[in-house]
Amino acid sequence: MIEAVGLTKRYGAKTAVYNLSFQVRPGHVTGFLGPNGSGKSTTMRMILGLDRPTSGHVTIGGHPFRQLPNAPRQVGALLDAKAVHGGRSARSHLLSLAQLAGIPAQRVDEVLGVVGLQDVAKRRSKGFSLGMGQRLGIAAALLGDPQVLLFDEPVNGLDPEGILWVRNLMKKLAAEGRTVFVSSHLMSEMALTADHLIVIGRGQLLADMSVKDFISANSADFARVRTPHTEPQQREKLTTVLTEAGGQVMPEPDGALRVTGLPLPRISDLAHDADVRLWELSPHQASLEEAYMRMTQGAVDYRSTDDRLAHLQPPMPPHQLPQPPQYVVPEVPQQGWYAPPPPGQNPYAAPQNPQHPQNPQAQGPNTEDAR
């Protein structure tokens, strides 16, 4: 378990985190949310002993990180996927971390298989894509088979298959009784992955509750009602009836009505009694993104504005506008929810023909692989 009590961090005159207290319990995926500059990364660095708190303290299993014996076997973390020596291969990078922590080399090959990098284990990391770098960082976090795991933006740069894999991995780790603490800006992904949320803004705690309670506390459900657009008098009649019954009715740009304060069965009965035909009567529950935006709208430090000089740019003639390339997409039979790759093919594997002129590895031998 991770526990922060009165955690405060100041950099000169700037207070990055102020009086922050929370607990991250095992057995759950805990999402760590907040706008840019809210202090999430600073908090994670203090948890891992990389920054010293100005006041307060944070412990892992009851002990500060720096006092944990053989910390890599107890805590795994991914804070910066680029924190890898570019001249080292993926396997060499993990092997050096394993040797420092007394972890057998066999474990290196195991985690490379877990993250899907076994076929590029001997390639230098400087040639890795952002998504491959994320997988290597996750492998490093899993190396010591720790009970506490911290991930900062773990799905950054991953393709849809990789995002699904990370989501299932987080849930699996939590189901094993581990403490999983994940920071992300992807609200849709957090809604599918996290069980509990810790939300901060400008370094202070805004919420510490389950995802379901967070959405309920920071949003209002409503009913969407639509009448025939050819009969505007029915829309006006229904608005009057619903308002008299205690509902709040707001028109939407597409002609529908947003109704709050009345349950769906009551709306249906009122419309039936008023002889109003309904083309739509549907419930709407706010998403995590909507609830998050409502809570944090006053804690955002960086807001974009319209470019006041945009009108000075003359419009480009239509014949000069860039045309999107035309692609011919072959028809692929659907198998499940996505088309699987060819049997035995790894998307990160090197080409089979090393002499192909387009193969970058054909430019010269890799001295590290030769060794």
From TrEMBL:
**Membrane-spanning ranges:** none
* Keyword presence, Transport: yes
List, as start-end ranges, the regions of compositional bias called Low complexity: 346-371
Q: Name one Pfam family in it.
A: ABC_tran
According to the UniProt entry, which residue ranges have a biased composition of type Pro residues? 314-327
- Domain of life, per UniProt, equals Bacteria
- Report a single Gene Ontology molecular function: ATP binding
- Disordered: region residues: 309-371
**PROSITE patterns in the record:** ABC_TRANSPORTER_2 (PS50893)
InterPro entries tied to this protein: AAA+_ATPase, ABC_transporter-like_ATP-bd, P-loop_NTPase
Question: Which keywords does this chain's UniProt record carry?
Answer: ATP-binding, Nucleotide-binding, Transport
- Domain ABC transporter, first and last residues per copy: 2-227
Q: Member of which family?
A: Belongs to the ABC transporter superfamily.
**The protein's name in its UniProt record:** ATP-binding cassette domain-containing protein
